[in-house]
Write a structure and sequence with these properties.
Layout: H1 16-59, H2 63-91, H3 93-110, H4 117-131, H5 134-145, H6 148-179, H7 188-210, H8 223-239, H9 245-250, H10 253-282, H11 288-316, H12 320-336, H13 344-365, H14 369-372, H15 378-407, H16 411-431
Helix pairs in contact: 1-6, 1-7, 1-10, 2-3, 2-4, 2-5, 2-15, 3-4, 3-5, 3-7, 5-15, 6-7, 6-11, 6-13, 10-11, 10-13, 10-15, 10-16, 11-13, 12-13, 12-16, 15-16
């Protein structure tokens, strides 16, 4: 992981090698835990897409009801996201993030015992409430420890954990559901929710002892290392926009431009996450293990793309085109899915390229908001942008479910997502000035 900070752009009077050693120490302390938390979080979102393949028969779950259940999670998330992030500034990241992990783990386990579509919808809503603030809280937490010159690579490494989850979740879910049916008297999909929910609870308890809120509070850093980190972070504050708290952020139109771009990206990434197994099954594959293996391919592609694009974006300190091009590639691929449906290899290749590009756009996007927001307005601003993006989870997944129920096909739904991606790329490139995102590094 130390490779993620090479080369280090010197942003202060401190020697680059000294800074590298300090930030390498921070990376090895924080990122393994945060990446593991993100992996478990992603699995606990993706598991529903695999459980659906079996639970639909047991609880009479239609595609439309599934779309509502997948989407209502984001409604609960959105309603409590901003308060959670603002509250995090008062009580600290450690208390906030660990509370969220424990609650979402317990509710994931409880999902195993739903018996009707309405019960699933209710549980998914409360799962969103429990998780509210986790992702924007993590993004905010990274700004406490890493300067902008490192944030593209750090954020990409962080999101790469989500791609690992996508690669692992398919084979893991397929194996659990294929071999553990009847364990403790539970059905296969019930076992899946139980075994993927408990690790979040355990990690939340561990986080109470492992995480540190800010550099100056870290007992595992010496005084010189603390000062190095604070000096590197201070450089960012001299170039930050002059907002005056949360209200000042709300008056900045770029906040809503960024939120709209986030909405378009999340529409694509959520559709990939929740509907990919169904799309693959519709091609004629029925074996759960095979579906899981094929589903892992886009996440493997996304993992590689995140690494390459994150390094390139930091090296050139260029964000807009590094983000806009993957959005356009994903859109073109989604448009081609319908044309490739009669050719298995071509279909898998196009699906993998489009899904990988859509997933790779997420970490690149999250290098943008910290550059647009002042230090005092970062917590609320990041939460607002994330909330606007998560509206995609409520709206797009309900629309996808309705289209699938009405037409029996997902191809039209993916065409609609492609249109959104093109629109989002144009909004990004035309609406956010390049100079607001930092100057290129020589």
């Amino acid at each position: 992981m130390s490779d993620t900070i090479q080369p280090f752009p010197t942003t202060s009077a401190l020697p680059a090698q000294q800074l590298k050693r300090t930030f390498t120490k921070v990376i090895w302390r924080l990122l393994p835990f945060l990446m593991l938390a993100f992996i478990i979080n992603a699995i606990d979102r993706l598991n529903l897409s695999f459980a659906k393949l079996r639970m639909a028969e047991d609880i009479a779950l239609s595609d439309a009801a599934y779309g509502i259940g997948a989407g209502i999670f984001y409604l609960g998330y959105i309603l409590f996201e901003v308060p959670s992030n603002l509250y995090m500034q008062r009580v600290g990241a450690r208390a906030t993030l660990t509370r969220i992990m424990i609650l979402w783990g317990l509710i994931t386990v409880a999902t195993a015992f739903v018996a009707t579509p309405n019960q699933l919808i209710v549980v998914r809503f409360f799962l969103g409430v429990a998780e509210a603030g986790f992702f924007p809280g993590l993004i905010l937490y990274l700004t406490y420890w890493f300067p902008a010159a490192l944030r593209g690579r750090i954020t990409a490494s962080f999101f790469m954990a989500g791609m690992v989850a996508g690669m692992v979740c398919g084979p893991l879910s397929g194996t659990i559901m294929a071999h553990l049916h009847g364990w403790l008297g539970l059905r296969d999909w019930q076992v899946l929710f139980v075994l993927t929910g408990l690790p979040a609870v355990l990690l939340g308890v561990l986080g109470r002892f492992w995480l540190t809120d800010r550099p100056e509070q870290a007992a595992w850093l010496d005084d010189d290392e603390k000062q190095q980190i604070l000096q590197a972070l201070a450089v960012d504050s001299t170039t930050a926009p002059a907002h005056h708290g949360f209200r000042g952020v709300l008056r900045d139109p770029l906040l809503y431009v960024a939120g709209l771009v986030c909405f378009c990206i999340y529409s694509a990434s959520n559709t990939v996450s929740y509907w990919l197994p169904t799309l693959i099954r519709g091609f004629g594959l029925e074996d759960l293990k095979m579906i899981g293996l094929v589903t892992s391919l886009p996440f493997l592609g996304g993992l590689c793309a995140m690494y390459v694009l994150g390094r390139s974006s930091d090296r050139h300190m260029e964000r807009r085109w590094h983000l806009g091009l993957p959005m356009l590639v994903a859109a073109a691929s989604f448009f081609m899915l319908d044309l490739a449906q009669d050719h298995l290899v071509l279909f898998i290749a196009v699906m993998t390229l489009g899904a990988a590009a859509a997933l790779a756009a997420m970490p690149l996007f999250w290098t943008v908001p910290p550059a647009l927001l002042s230090k005092s307005g970062a917590a609320g601003g990041i939460a607002i942008i994330s909330s606007l993006g998560n509206l995609a989870g409520v709206l797009s997944q309900s629309v996808v479910g309705a289209v699938k129920s009405a037409t029996g096909s997902l191809y039209l739904a993916f065409d609609l997502i492609a249109v959104l991606l093109v629109f989002g790329a144009l909004v990004l490139l035309l609406g956010i000035p390049a100079h607001r995102l930092g100057k290129p590094t020589p």
